[in-house]
Design a protein that fits this description.
By secondary structure, the protein is of the alpha+beta class. The protein contains one helix and seven strands, in the order H-E-E-E-E-E-E-E.
Length: 116
């Protein structure tokens, strides 16, 4: 083996290791703990029931209330829920939701209301 082969192999190994790290970094947010969108919700007075597509992900909600809006951001650990598993979060507001708009802090949009 010549000495010129060693730097080439070292460079290839470094490139391969960098590629693997980039791929792992791009996968981490989806599988780790992060803000998750609210997929459905319902309200009864001052209590919100919120649903996220995580499965036993220990969801936690933070709430910001104004006179016009209630913004809820849910942070949870993503695990493949399949079709049969979702997490729900119950949030008690300072005042009934009333005519205020519920905003998903993750998307900035109004999530879908559960009818029924």
């Amino acid at each position: 083996m010549s000495s010129s082969t060693t730097p080439v192999r070292t460079a290839l190994r470094l490139c391969s290791a960098t590629a693997v790290l980039v791929l792992l970094a791009s996968c981490s947010p989806a599988e780790g703990r992060a803000p998750r969108p609210i997929v459905a919700w319902s309200v009864a007075g001052d209590v919100l029931q919120l649903v996220v597509d995580t499965c036993h992900g220990d969801p936690r909600a933070t709430v910001e209330e104004t006179d016009d809006e209630v913004t809820v951001t849910i942070v949870s650990t993503w695990q493949d829920p399949g079709d049969a598993c979702q997490d729900s979060v119950e949030v008690t507001l300072d005042a009934p939701l009333g005519s205020r708009t519920l905003i998903d802090g993750t998307s900035g949009q109004e999530p879908e209301l559960i009818e029924g």
